[in-house]
Amino acid sequence: MPLRVLVRGGGDLGSGVVMRLHQAGFWVLVTELEKPLVVRRKVAFAEAIYAGVTHVEEILAQRVATAEEARECFLRGDVPVMVDPEAKARFWFKPHVLVDARLTKKGSDLPHPAAPLVIGIGPGFVAGQDCHVVIESMRGHTLGRLYWEGSTEPDTGIPESVGGYDAQRVLRAPVAGVLTACVEIGDLVKQGQPIATINGHKVLAPFDGVVRGLVADGLYVTQGMKIGDVDPRQNPKYCYLVSDKSLAIGGAALTAILSVSTLRSVLYSDDWA
């Protein structure tokens, strides 16, 4: 029986973790919201919630509803994704590792420890308090570092710079309401071109670029919520590739798992319910 990992959050960063661990031969179950708020949907396993089936690069993910459906998905070599915001699947899946990749910046909402190894990603987590180890998610020399004590760098609230643009490249909802998309992820847009509308309010491209991310059409959004991302590099290929940051965090999660000697005793157990 392969090592079992439950990843909470199938967004772009969580999907980097899923990709690395799936490629390492682990059984990885993804849990998500009923309506995921993911922006970079072309590289997010969470998209399976909307589409039923999706690909992140060469890996296929399928929406499932039961333990048996998840098991069948594993046996096919795919990634099961299920609606389970409270991660109740941990009671039947009995993961050896639980990775919280939701990026809520609030730490865990589960009793600790919820698994033999609990990994938190980004600010809000405190190693030894609500997880065993925290992974740094901020770009720079500390990206992907493991903290077995304490926490990561605090959230700056400033998006990372891409092509000289930081906050400008992030699209936010001007009002609350239902989003209607005017373009698709991967489309090239010109400055001032409508990307979406929300209750009659247009969301315009801030500069010439490519739409790298956009939340699902028809999703209800709140005012100020991040709804999209425009990439000034104007290369649609980047929309379909897991980012270097996501892969770095995924590699860090794999290192954390392989460096924990206490997990050796559970690698050979079969607790499938």
> Element order, helices and strands?
EHEHEEHEHEEEEEEEEEEEEH
Broad shape: globular
Quote the beta fraction: 25-35%
Question: Mean pLDDT, as a whole number?
Answer: 91
Sequence of strands across the biggest β-sheet: 3-4-5-2-1-6-7-8-9
Q: How does the major sheet shape up? A: 9 strands, mixed
Q: Give me the count of strands.
A: 17
Helix count, per DSSP? Answer: 5
Low-confidence stretches: none
Roughly how much helix do the residues carry, as a percent range? Answer: 10-25%
- Alpha carbon gyration radius: 19 Å
Our measurement of the CA-to-CA distance between the termini, rounded to an integer number of angstroms, reads 13 Å
Structural class: alpha/beta
Structure description:
By secondary structure, this protein is of the alpha/beta class. The chain is 17% helix and 26% strand. The chain contains five helices and 17 strands. It has helices at 12-23, 47-51, 67-76, 90-93, 244-258; strands at 4-8, 27-32, 53-56, 59-63, 79-83, 97-100, 117-121, 133-135, 146-147, 170-172, 177-181, 188-189, 194-198, 201-204, 209-214, 220-221, 226-231. The strands form three sheets. A nine-stranded mixed beta sheet has the order 3-4-5-2-1-6-7-8-9, sandwiched between helices. Helix 1 (12-23) packs across helix 5. The longest helix is centred in the last third of the chain and has 15 residues, at 244-258.
Question: What are the main properties of this structure?
Answer:
globular; four-stranded antiparallel β-sheet; 26% strand; 17% helix; alpha/beta; 5 helices; 273 residues; nine-stranded mixed β-sheet
